[in-house]
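Incident review: delayed structure delivery

Summary: a single-chain prediction request sat in the queue longer than the usual turnaround. Root cause was a stuck worker, restarted by the on-call engineer. No data loss occurred. The affected request and its eventual output are reproduced below so the record is complete for anyone auditing the incident later.

Affected input:
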Amino acid sequence: MEIKKLAVFGDSWIWGDELLDPKLRDDPDSHPCFTQNDEYRLSHCFSGLIAKKLGVPYENYGQPGASLQSTMWTFMWWLNNRDTADTMVLIGLTAPDRQSWYNPDHVSYSNDPEWNKYVHSAWVNFGSSSIPEEWQQFGKQYLTLSHCDELSRLNYHQAVLFFDGVSKSLDIPLLQFNLYQPWTRLKQEVSTLLWPTKNMQEVLLGRPDFKQIHAPGHHPNEQGHQIISEYLIPEINRVILA
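Output delivered after worker restart:
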């Protein structure tokens, strides 16, 4: 199988949060989301390392705070708006207790990509000042009225089976893996789901050098992303050679 491009989807781990160019670190106002940091962030996150290893370009559709729901929405946007031929897809499955809502009146203040019109529960829970009051109240109502473990299990099952089904029905080479503890096990065997009983957070935290491979906000640092890439590359090669 010839792979000409890589596309990755998920949350802040996929996006590359806390990967900051050393040239910018002396400025206390610098932030990983600044456009002048994009090249460094995208090349040092694990998907960038994998793309370099494969010798292909890649597109990063990760977003800090993303949920399984928004990851599916973004993936569907990609299906309808990008050439998907000969593209290898990686899905980082985020925490299933997160939720997202679509905001048709979204206003971009930082050149948001076309697909991004989401409000995430993670932002509301964090108390982000950028979330309008009406969406903060909406998020609190959701937490009060709907949020529960049963819904989290349904979110996880829906996402895993959705990505697996699309991969098989459209013949898209795809691998998905848990970033965090999924809280539940699928009864079905899903061939695109790597390591059903593992998650990358526990893998990194379980290492004796865990303090050296995490950034201050607990995302993987450059070394952590290198480790994740080394986990994934053999599995990607297995798919390519199949």
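Verification: The mean pLDDT is 93.
Action items: add queue-age alerting; document worker restart procedure.
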